[in-house]
Structures are given as structure tokens and as C-alpha cells.
Give the backbone structure.
Amino acid sequence: MLESAIEATSRQLFRRMLAAVAVIAMAVAALASLSVAVAPAAHAAADVHIDDVRFESNTVADGTRQSLHVDWSIPAKATK
């Protein structure tokens, strides 16, 4: 009985973590598409690359916040 309760709790936690990862991935994708869709000002036009996106931690407890780190770069031959 206790084992089945633990398994149910583990499955629920896994689903919540999976949902959180999906929401964050969609937010990153939305931000990336927004940067393509919005025309920058003429003086600020440059190519920007998102090099890496990663979580601060591999586990997330219920009701807590998680940091997302994004590495980005501007290529050496960016246009003005």
C-alpha cells in the first residue's frame, strides 16, 4: 500500500516536472521566434544566436522557482 502511494506521488511529481519543462521550452521558443518576428531599429540590426539553454538544477521541487540560463552570441561579422 505504501509503495503504491509512493509510486503515485513519484508519477505525479514527474508529470509536474515534465509540464514545467514543456512550459519553459515553449517560452524559450516563443522568445526566439519573437526576436525573428520583430524588426529591430536600423541602428541595432544584428544577427543574434542562442548557443545554449540549460536549467540551473536537474530537479525542481513543487512550488519553487527554477533558473534558466541562456548563452547567446553575436557573430564577428554582424551587420549594422
About this structure: The chain has one domain: 2-73. Residues 53 and 70 are 5 Å apart (CA to CA). The longest strand covers residues 49-55. The mean pLDDT is 77.
